[in-house]
Amino acid sequence: MNERFAEKMSDAQVVKDTRLLGDFSVIYCRGNHPDADRVPLTSDGASLGVYGRKLPIVCEECARLLRYAEKRRAFCPKDPKPFCSYCDTHCYSSEMREFMREVMRYAGPRSITRGHAIDSVRHLVEGRRARREAEARASSDQ
Ligand code: SF4
Ligand SMILES: [Zn+2]
Predict the structure, then answer these.
(1) Which residues line ligand 1 (CB under 6 A)?
(2) What is the DSSP letter of 40?
(3) If residue 115 lies in a helix (H) or strand (E), which one and from where to where?
């Protein structure tokens, strides 16, 4: 693991955002990959203790997304950082970006009852804003 990653991962906001991604991935994985083998996540973030004692239990496909997302979050150039699914910088590959969008769309509303009411409302508000901005851009291009 590279030292810069470990240093970035010591930031409280990065830890909070990464844990949120972990929680959302668990909700998504449980609902969408019911037959997959789900095991506690192994990743650089997990080795650093970013998720605390309760590691996300996910399948390999969701683990791959989380490992990827950890790196992107650690080195994110945005401040304040929006939800990745509504970001205009697109530092994700198109495949991972679509996957993350799907995870957020599914898990966002369902996370309200799982201790993420504020994050879930923020996700909805950001989604509406991103849609309005996209519509405004499209109409100014005409
Ligand atoms: S997609 Fe945007 S918000 Fe997400 S990590 Fe990349 S630059 Fe940051
Ligand atoms: Zn999964």
Answers:
(1) 72-73, 76-78, 81-82, 84, 87, 89, 91-92
(2) E
(3) none
Q: Residue 76 belongs to what domain range?
A: 3-141
Spell out the alpha helix ranges (H) of 33-59. 44-47
Residue 119 in this model has a pLDDT that exceeds 80 = no
Q: For the whole model, what pTM was predicted?
A: 0.84
Q: Rounded to the nearest 5°, which phi and psi values hold at 74?
A: -60, -40
> What are the tokens at 28?
């998504």
Residue 1 has pLDDT above 80, yes or no: no
Cα of 102 to ligand 2 centre, how many Å? 12
> Cα(85) to centroid of ligand 1, in Å?
8
In tens, the pLDDT along 56-70 reads 999 999 999 999 999
Q: Of 45, 47, 40, nearest to 9 (Cα)?
A: 45
Pocket test residue of 89, 94, 95, 104 for ligand 1, highest count of atoms within 8 A of CB: 89
Q: How many domains does the chain have?
A: 1
